[in-house]
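Researcher: Batch entry, complex prediction.
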Amino acid sequence: MKYDETELRVRFNEVDSWGMVWHGHYIAWFEAGRMALLGKFHLLPRDFAQMGYIAPVVDLKCVFQEPARLDEEILILTTVLKPTKAALTFRFQVLRRSDRKLLASGEETQVLLTLDGRMLYIIPQDLRERFQPLFDYLEEPDSAA
Amino acid sequence: MADDSVWGLKKLIIETLRLEEITPGDIEDDGPLFGDGLGLDSIDALELVVALEKTYGVVIPDSEVGERVFRSVNTLAQFVREQSASGKQQSAK
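Model: Structure tokens for the complex:
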């Protein structure tokens, strides 16, 4: 499975009084990774809204292996699983750039709603067609491999 | 042919959602499936929709239909029977 990569540097406001990144900030990093990946395929929240949909997060997991620390360069790796139901599941890894050490991993699931709040139980054809280039990209062999 | 009885649907719910502690006898025929009652959530609904389409060929497109269909196992069974009958009439034409 191919992951898209985004780089960040740990900021002062992200570090707690123990000198490590506060756990809640990893979720914002996941979001940065997701936006970077989806932006490449015009699937940002505004694109969804223009098509008449929103995609709220309904499930979220994060496992912390090692802390990120101030000023470290980190990589956010993001992928999305090909859906088997009307939901999008993203997987994330946070790596320390210097040694690609895994710092945290996570998963988020989004469901699909119409703008008037009706939850979709089947992914509509227009969304399937918009997602296809994303899934084609993620199925391409990793050029770094 | 898939078992579209209330008992068969209860087994499908249990197997699809991996409700290890639950038996078909534990699920009330008229009891709510979501919220109170069996306590299923929105992700469970999506899993069930896929299983119902695979097993019975019925389509539940969104929560508007789902709210009615998933009210209880009895309403689900009625929906499956209605859809199956409708499907047979279509194929017979």
